[in-house]
Amino acid sequence: MLEASGASRTSFAASLEHLVQLALLEKNPGHGHPLRPEFRLTPTGVQAAEIASRIVTAVPDEKEFSLLRKSWTVPILALTATPQRFSVIRSDLATITDRALSASLYKLEEREWIRRDINTSERVPFPTYCAANAGIQINRAVVLRA
Q1: Whole-angstrom Cα distance, residue 95 to residue 93?
Q2: Which of 131, 146, 142 is nearest to 57 (CA)?
Q3: pLDDT tens across 128-141, in order?
Q4: Contact (Cβ atoms closer than 8 angstroms) between residue 68 and residue 138
Q5: pLDDT (tens digit, 9 = 90+) per residue, 86-127?
Q6: Residues 80, 60: contact at Cβ < 8 Å?
Q7: Domains and CATH numbers, the chain
Q8: Among 1, 35, 75, 80, which has the minimal tally of Cβ within 10 Å of its Cβ?
Q9: In angstroms, what CA-CA distances link 128 with 12, 15, 83, 85, 114?
């Protein structure tokens, strides 16, 4: 797995430890035989792996997949099945900065994964963002409950 991931040993070990802390992986109590892995997925980890598999299937193109690797792409797409205001997305993603959200929305709009519309029904017009094209496929992959 280390070679397939392309990560350094230190980075890979830190990632495994983080997945254990998130309760997505657990140490395999049967470890000690070459055919038994040192770690195994927890039930929650199995659900997360199924979601990840659906996301990867939704974006088979490697060029498009690079955007999927960005920190905020999937969380933003998960929130935009229906049109959302910037402030609503920001409040739902508590740790994101305005700059990071703005840059992410711009990149998603550029790839046509997000559609930006101007709502003029209020006294002060405001933009709304909604997943589109591959973005809606990713949204469905994330919010689909197994």
Answers
A1: 6
A2: 142
A3: 999 999 899 999 98
A4: yes
A5: 999 999 998 999 999 999 999 999 999 999 999 888 888 999
A6: no
A7: 62-143 (1.10.10.10)
A8: 35
A9: 38, 35, 5, 5, 10
